[in-house]
Specification:
disordered N terminus, mainly alpha, 25 helices, Serine Threonine Protein Phosphatase 5, Tetratricopeptide repeat, 3 strands
Length: 520
């Protein structure tokens, strides 16, 4: 059973900060000479570039551990909701946000340095409407925009960026995978007074994130009551509501307490926005919620029975109809899934997720022409939609049209900031089409996006070594190689001397290498 301190909204990040900031002085001192003297602004303690490197390293380790749910449709939806809220928090134009689902059934979300925000699928399943999910995202976005991590580090002192990233990653991965030894080991090293100081600061952050996030939430057109409503859900789950027993964990030791006072304050803030009418909930919310339920339910639990029971006891929602069809498709029952998906796709032709799933089901049933037509028609309505384009390209590769798939993906790559998974698949399509040099180039971009510059250099060198590449390709590959080598060298200069490095510390890319910000 997981330690109670690892539960609740943003609980992972709270434990990270508590464990990190309560480590003995000798750990803090390992890289102290690598940073300039700290002034009063938080940015002098931790720049946006530093935050990005830390966050990227943590996400990379989560991905390596299989904790990131690599599903284009679900990720696209979460990114769309998050971006809608971020648009209301545009004060820091240099900050870019990346949202992803985590393979964890607990009710949790966390903000990492650099604008990386993870949402456990368990939290998505616990929400009852889109505004509740948006309330969680708004809260986490506020943590990032308010620079809470940088401010805490400024309050504590100087720390090696590489050392800090390694500690954060180890603790977070331990929490995400259910093994909290690393987190508890760090906390056990803390003194009581230091821990209390960290918790108090975190609670202050939480109050600020509630207040600032509420403004983002309402301005983005969501129901502001989604935030307090979900707080109540969390309170009931955590046993920290007014009706909880006297044996509950004391509030003073809760880094993110869900109390009646916090809920009341949140409802009071929401009342200020009562004159703003929220927009209607998107169909994609319920579709994504049920998609995650199907994708994360173990085979031995038979998710189809869940939907059968729901259908018997009440009218199914659109999301439940989709979930049942997806579950049938996943189990190989093509006829049952095709009937439902065809009806849903006709009802909601503007929803890409339905069209992409229908296209996949048609391909699985051997209806190749119908599948390709479904993808083509859907892309006409939703041009350059990432999941649709990826699924279309997959179908093209399966039908021996790799050259066309490569062209379709290249158009997306050059016009939409690509995700790591998109880059990887573009490389596979190029390789299938026989475009070896381009395949290596795309893989170099994938390694940049996931923070592994040495592998990126190796791929670019492979691209340059391919015989017969054009002059344009050679110039592009060489320019990119020079850029990556320069960033790699700069990253190594920032690292501690070799005798102080752990085996887990690897050079990270600079902020200017962020996905979509470099010339192609």
């Amino acid at each position: 059973m997981r330690n109670p301190l690892l539960r609740g909204l943003n609980q992972h990040l709270a434990v990270l900060l508590t464990a990190l900031l309560c480590l003995p002085p000798r750990v803090w001192a390992q890289g102290a000479n690598d940073l300039p003297d700290i002034g009063s602004p938080a940015s002098s303690a931790l720049s946006l570039d530093d935050e990005y490197r830390i966050g990227l390293q943590i996400v990379r380790q989560l991905r390596d551990e299989g904790q990131v749910i690599e599903d284009p449709e679900a990720t696209e939806y979460l990114q769309a909701v998050g971006s809608r809220i971020v648009a209301q928090a545009s004060g820091d134009s240099a900050q870019r946000f990346n949202f992803f689902f985590v393979r964890d059934d607990t009710i949790n979300a966390f903000a990492l340095p650099g604008g990386f925000i993870g949402v456990n699928y368990g939290l998505m399943l616990a929400t009852r409407n889109e505004s509740q999910l948006a309330g969680v995202l708004a809260h986490e976005i506020a943590h990032v925009t308010q620079r809470h991590i940088a401010r805490r580090i400024h309050a504590q002192g100087r720390q090696s960026i590489a050392t800090m990233a390694t500690i954060l990653a180890a603790i977070l991965v331990g929490a995400a995978t259910g093994s909290s030894d690393a987190a508890m080991g760090g906390i056990s090293m803390a003194q009581g007074a230091a821990m209390q100081q960290s918790i108090n600061f975190t609670r202050s952050n939480e109050n600020e994130a509630d207040r600032v996030g509420m403004g983002f939430l309402s301005a983005a057109g969501f129901d502001p009551y989604g935030m307090p409503d979900f707080f109540e859900t969390m309170g009931r789950r955590a046993g920290l509501s007014a009706s909880s027993s006297r044996n509950a964990i004391p509030e003073i030791l809760q880094s993110h307490p869900i109390t009646t006072n916090r809920i009341a304050e949140s409802r009071s803030r929401a009342a200020f926005y009562k004159d703003l009418k929220p927009t209607a909930e998107s169909v994609s919310y319920s579709l994504t919620r049920e998609r995650l339920r199907v994708l994360t339910t173990p085979p031995d639990q038979n998710v189809r029975r869940y939907y059968e029971d729901r259908r018997k006891n009440q009218d199914q929602t659109v999301g439940e109809r989709y979930g049942e069809a997806l579950a049938a498709y996943q189990s190989g029952n093509s006829s049952a899934s095709l009937d439902s998906l065809t009806i849903l796709a006709r009802e909601f032709p503007q929803v890409p997720m339905l069209q992409s799933t229908l296209g996949q089901a048609l391909m699985n049933a051997g209806a190749t022409d119908a599948a390709l037509e479904t993808f083509h028609r859907a892309l006409t309505l939703s041009p350059r939609n990432i999941p649709l384009t990826l699924r279309y390209a997959e179908a093209l590769v399966k039908t021996n049209q790799a050259k066309t798939a490569h062209a379709v993906l290249l158009d997306l790559f050059n016009n939409v900031p690509p995700t790591p998974e998109q880059m990887r698949f573009t490389a596979l399509a190029a390789s299938s089409a026989g475009d070896t040099a381009d395949a290596a180039y795309y893989m170099s971009e994938y390694h940049i996006a996931t923070g592994n510059l040495p592998l990126s250099v190796a791929q670019l060198e492979m691209a340059l070594a391919v015989p017969g590449i054009s002059g344009v390709q050679r110039s592009r590959f060489q320019a990119r190689l020079d850029e990556v080598r320069e960033a790699l060298f700069a990253g190594r200069k920032r690292r501690p001397p070799p005798q102080q490095q752990s085996s887990e510390q690897r050079p990270q890319r600079s902020a200017q290498e962020r996905t979509g910000t470099l010339s192609r």
